[in-house]
Amino acid sequence: MEKQPILATRRLLLRAFDPGDAREVQRLCGDYAVAATTLLPYPYPDGLAEVWIASLREGIERGDAAAFAVTLAGEGGLIGGVRLRIDTDHARGELGFWVARRCWGRGYATEAVRAVIEYGFSTLGLHRVHAHHFSRNPASGRVMEKCGMVYEGRLRHHVRKWGVYEDVDLWGIVREPPPHGEAQIPSPLRRTPV
Ligand SMILES: CC(C)(COP(=O)(O)OP(=O)(O)OC[C@H]1O[C@@H](n2cnc3c(N)ncnc32)[C@H](O)[C@@H]1OP(=O)(O)O)[C@@H](O)C(=O)NCCC(=O)NCCS
Questions:
Q1: How far apart are CA 13 and CA 5, in angstroms?
Q2: Is residue 116 part of a domain?
Q3: 3-state helix, strand, coil in the chain (%, to 5)
Q4: 167 in a domain, yes or no?
Q5: Residue nearest (by alpha carbon) to ligand 1 atom 29
Q6: Which residue range or ranges hold the N-acetyltransferase domain (predicted)?
Q7: From 42, 99, 168, mutation site for ligand 1 pocket: most ligand atoms within 8 A of C-beta
Q8: 160: CA distance to ligand 1 center in Å?
Q9: Is the N or the C terminus of the chain less surrounded, counting Cβ atoms within 10 Å?
């Protein structure tokens, strides 16, 4: 998608979702282990991935979403997704993310989420990024912590998942103002050393 750049990290390429990703999204998000700690339905119904990808693309066009398919650099296989729901009035974005079960525990979520937070601050001009996760899903909280987010509290029984009320933990990160005076330095003064 033209409105959104490709983000490259050490091991990953983050690109826009494409309608051709639908089958793989359905397969990976159709994993019970991924559905169990998100608001995804289980089993994952036919057609939902197509609708979801189309809605992300519309959100990017409107400017109220950023959404990246997480792929392995080199081989290019889809292994996850990271999205920001953007509230432009408040210059804030809400993060959501998932990684394919077979790839858990290798630092991929952390690497991808860090890149998207940086994109949100530096390119989208966000002031705050926030997220929440089921309190029983500490791996997600750990990803947020490793990305510099700060624990902001717990909402009790905030979500009903499969008929059970669940607590959720809140995390956030606020863009630090630049060091005094830095914003005034005209860019031509930032010369590359020869
Ligand atoms: C949560 C999720 C994205 C993590 O992905 P990942 O690629 O495995 O994450 P990372 O490898 O970058 O980091 C995971 C961290 O959680 C830690 N962790 C894993 N299980 C844990 C547990 N039960 N308790 C505490 N920490 C745990 C890991 O040790 C690692 O931290 P470390 O680097 O300090 O060792 C992945 O499990 C997932 O997609 N789950 C299903 C969807 C979901 O829950 N999404 C988040 C919704 S908000």
A1: 10
A2: yes
A3: 35, 30, 35
A4: no
A5: 105
A6: 12-171
A7: 99
A8: 22
A9: C
Q: Which pLDDT belongs to residue 176?
A: 83
pLDDT tens-digit profile of 22-65? 999 999 999 999 999 999 999 999 999 999 999 999 999 999 99
Which residues have C-beta within 8 Å of that of residue 20, sequence separation ≥ 6?
none
pLDDT of residue 113: 98
**Cα 163 to Cα 158: distance, rounded to the nearest angstrom:** 12
Probe target for ligand 1 pocket from 39, 143, 167, with the most ligand atoms within 8 Å of CB: 143
Question: Would you state the pLDDT for residue 184?
Answer: 46
Across the chain, which distance is largest between two alpha carbons, in Å? 64
Is residue 193 very low, low, confident or very high in pLDDT (cuts 50, 70, 90)? very low
CATH number for position 15: 3.40.630.30
Give the count of domains, the chain.
1
Domain membership flag for residue 187: no
